[in-house]
């Protein structure tokens, strides 16, 4: 229970969503020296403050024990790094993930038309070849405008994304949003699930739907384009020109009735020119969508999809050192992934400074008041 000397309002936003999470430790350990809520709070506060290992989390806790007691009693002090590792190796990640999703749903403010990108990432070095354990693959939902990870599910490999995506969609509040997924998610049941959630979809079509792709290519050779949009982007040593074309006359598209909500097919032509060499490459991508003819919005949504790479995956790798971690034991890597996403969410919602994420973590480590500010958001 929280320290009675501290206002429960301070931690209610955290504890109310994680208080019922089942403690994986054996009941015969009695009252346990370190309550699970205290361990979770310690880890999130430590990761916000720059800790990336169980040892550094333990060191943070020992040095900030007086501050931690503002929030929880910590009557028995701080658990060792071995205790932390064992708890998170045993903690059931599915239940932890559902708690995370409920918490994010309570604070997320997704707006109509917001792009929610569904994308997978393999956590490098989470495998254990000696024990025949494969690396963990996580499918995440990322609200690009708000910069929030709305939830995630772990799967055995990238090929299992097809079954994981509908399960993840069912857990999310998506009304009014536009869900974007790469070719792996171009499945009829996934389109149906998105529409049933009162959302729209833009699904990439590639080789896994060859018949559909061939028909879309043919449509663009015989049907007029209903809407077109062009934009350009300068950065990363290149110039990129994109043209988005939309067709909504689908009477020649076989099986179109089996794709729930289908209203348009899309062709995006990207031309990239190197600033150094002047050489260019052209790529054509095709999509299906429940949106109609607004090529400008569709072009923006497709471009927003890739924000999940540099605003979530890249941050987890570079800022939170997820891929450099050696958390191999049982559920450790996946549970750390959830903790890092919670820390990232809290940091992104703290708007009093425009400092970079590494600078925010350093400031949180040095300044108790700033850490308070992040955790009270």
TrEMBL record:
<dbReference type="Pfam" id="PF13808">
    <property type="entry name" value="DDE_Tnp_1_assoc"/>
</dbReference>
<dbReference type="Pfam" id="PF01609">
    <property type="entry name" value="DDE_Tnp_1"/>
</dbReference>
<dbReference type="GO" id="GO:0004803">
    <property type="term" value="F:transposase activity"/>
</dbReference>
<dbReference type="InterPro" id="IPR002559">
    <property type="entry name" value="Transposase_11"/>
</dbReference>
<dbReference type="InterPro" id="IPR032806">
    <property type="entry name" value="YbfD_N"/>
</dbReference>
<feature type="domain" description="Transposase IS4-like">
    <location>
        <begin position="113"/>
        <end position="346"/>
    </location>
</feature>
<protein>
    <submittedName>
        <fullName>Mobile element protein</fullName>
    </submittedName>
</protein>
<feature type="domain" description="H repeat-associated protein N-terminal">
    <location>
        <begin position="17"/>
        <end position="104"/>
    </location>
</feature>
<dbReference type="InterPro" id="IPR047647">
    <property type="entry name" value="ISAs1_transpos"/>
</dbReference>
<dbReference type="GO" id="GO:0006313">
    <property type="term" value="P:DNA transposition"/>
</dbReference>
<dbReference type="GO" id="GO:0003677">
    <property type="term" value="F:DNA binding"/>
</dbReference>
<dbReference type="InterPro" id="IPR051698">
    <property type="entry name" value="Transposase_11-like"/>
</dbReference>
